[in-house]
Amino acid sequence: MSKKIIILGIESSCDDTSAAIISDGYILSNIIANQKVHEKYGGVVPELASREHQKNIIPVVDAAIKEAGIKKEDISAVSFTQGPGLLGSLLVGSSFAKSFALGIDIPLIAINHMKGHIMAHFIKNKAEENKQPNFPFLCLTVSGGHTQIVLVKSVTEMIIIGETLDDAAGEAFDKSAKILGLPYPGGPLIDKYARKGNKEKFTFGRHKVGKYDFSYSGIKTSILRVIEKEIDKNRNFIKENLEDLCASIQHTIVEVLIKKITKASSELGINEIAIAGGVSANSYLRKRLIELQKIQKKNVFIPKFEYCTDNAAMIAITGYYQFLEKDFSDQSVTPTSRLKL
Asked: Domain 137-307 classified CATH 3.40.50.720?
């Protein structure tokens, strides 16, 4: 009987410290430690993030191994996020992974964070039916730092066919929330208030860009200008219209995503569509994609909520497939804040 391939995944690209165990493609554990320290600053403070990672990394890895019911000697390889992300945060995860791999003499696997988000669709759970996209498929990767359309030909071949020219969709959500006076992280709060609002109440400008690319800087400026103009007339404008504002902002941001992925799907003749990244947790985006599936007969794949935001399960599953390809790194590998897919 062949030995199981057990991968320890470590994710530390931003402000979540996470460790996960994958065995032959099946999830055994996925532990995430969130950092609350950034809330009072209205955004992630890089230096504080790296300090929190140092506090959390050992307890989180220990918890992942214990929950998986294995010993560290059972682990076949350790995979970690090489980038993109905050350099100080990445250094904590990569240093631990390198030391762990060296300590028990197992392979080290460097993972691209954005590839990890895409590969989250291939995490299997023994207690569930596991539906996975067929190759080739299109993946809309949407987060605070990235907005891309990726043509996924295989687990090893991925091509960016469209991306943001300025700001990411997730940043547009968070900056809009800040304009509305909502606390960080604001994206989920816009989603919450939007559920009771009228998405047609306010209209915001959209910047037209080429084919499959995105631009959100103009949308952010338009939102700011509309709100400033109305506040000049009524100091209580935001409070009195919060739900409608959130619904209208969310509708504007999401419709740009839907328009572009639909265009790519139709022109390339690819009906397999997946989403990934933190913004894929947005309920309105998920709703619009389900409608796309029903109306246009697309095969849509939406990850479980725990695999939308940064997590180590996606790093472990990517590591598993790179292990099968013997795509290893040596101890000289270094993290990088900017890393192309």
From this structure: no
Whether the domain at 6-128+309-324 and the domain at 137-307 fall into the same CATH topology: yes
Q: Alpha helix locations (H) across 180-236?
A: 187-194, 217-233
Q: In whole angstroms, what is the distance from residue 247 CA to residue 250 CA?
A: 5
Closest CA to 260 of 302, 220, 206, 203: 206
Q: Give the closest residue to 24 by CA, choosing from 97, 156, 93, 126.
A: 126
- Euclidean distance between CA atoms 306 and 27, whole angstroms: 12
Name the H helices within the chain. Answer: 46-68, 87-104, 113-119, 169-179, 187-194, 217-233, 237-268, 283-296, 312-324
246 pLDDT higher than 80? yes
Q: Is the pTM of this model over 0.85?
A: yes
CATH number of 6-128+309-324: 3.30.420.40
Give percent above pLDDT 90 in the chain: 84
Predicted local confidence at residue 96, as pLDDT: 98
Integer Rg of the chain from CA: 20
pLDDT at residue 44 tops 80: no
**Distance in angstroms (rounded) separating the CA atoms of residues 157 and 42:** 37
